[in-house]
């Protein structure tokens, strides 16, 4: 029993070191990308002819042309569109990276991201932390369970003040309205959430609206850094 416990404790210790190393290495990877950074989230199933796929591409391209980097989960769909948009908007003679995909091992392993370098981590919570910790804005396009999971994690971070009050933009009013209605008509009405939680995010019809609000925050950051 003692040997078994020792081995178990050793495994936990080594795993903790591994997790810490991945977080530190992820932070190092992000430090090589031009600041400010914006995170773009969205469904991996979106195809190239999808409206939101096109919007994600154009949004990250505009960010790149404004000197703003875009990071994603590194997978297909919306994530790939954002990585490719950032690459397309980057000046050819610019040697500084402006996009990164933070991917999870054993997820989307058959997908090849040709537009962005990838940093692989072993757990979802590491990816979430890296995607949120260094961003000055988060844009969430329509997606499935993974996207909604990431969205509610960000909302919970905001609730507990684990992240600065950065803008959180949900693109696609028709898509997100049922979730907003649930928050208002069910969770809020029954006292499970506070009314001010509704200020944590803004639902917009187009990526252009998200761009304008987040760019203001990024411009303020640039002014502060240049002083």
Kindly describe this structure.
The protein is of the alpha/beta class. The longest helix is centred in the first third of the chain and has 30 residues, at 2-31. The chain has helices at residues 2-31, 51-65, 78-89, 124-133, 145-159, 173-188, 207-226, and strands at residues 37-41, 69-72, 99-104, 118-121, 138-140, 168-171, 202-204. Helix 6 (173-188) links the parallel strand 6 (168-171) and strand 7.
Rounded to an integer, what's the Rg over CA atoms? 19 Å
**What is the CATH architecture assignment?**
3-Layer(aba) Sandwich
Low-confidence stretches: none
How many E strands?
A: 7
**The CATH C-level class name:** Alpha Beta
- What structural category arises from helix and sheet content? alpha/beta
**What kind of oligomer do you see?**
single chain
CATH topology: Rossmann fold
Average pLDDT reading: 92
For the sheet with most strands, the description reads: 7 strands, parallel
Strand content: 5-15%
Helix content: 40-55%
Number of discrete domains? 1
Count of alpha/pi helices: 7
Sheet with most strands: strand arrangement: 4-3-2-1-5-6-7
Distance between the termini: 61 Å
Order of helices and strands: HEHEHEEHEHEHEH
Shape type: globular
Helix/strand layout:
Blueprint (H helix, E strand, L loop, with lengths): L1 H30 L5 E5 L9 H15 L3 E4 L5 H12 L9 E6 L13 E4 L2 H10 L4 E3 L4 H15 L8 E4 L1 H16 L13 E3 L2 H20 L1
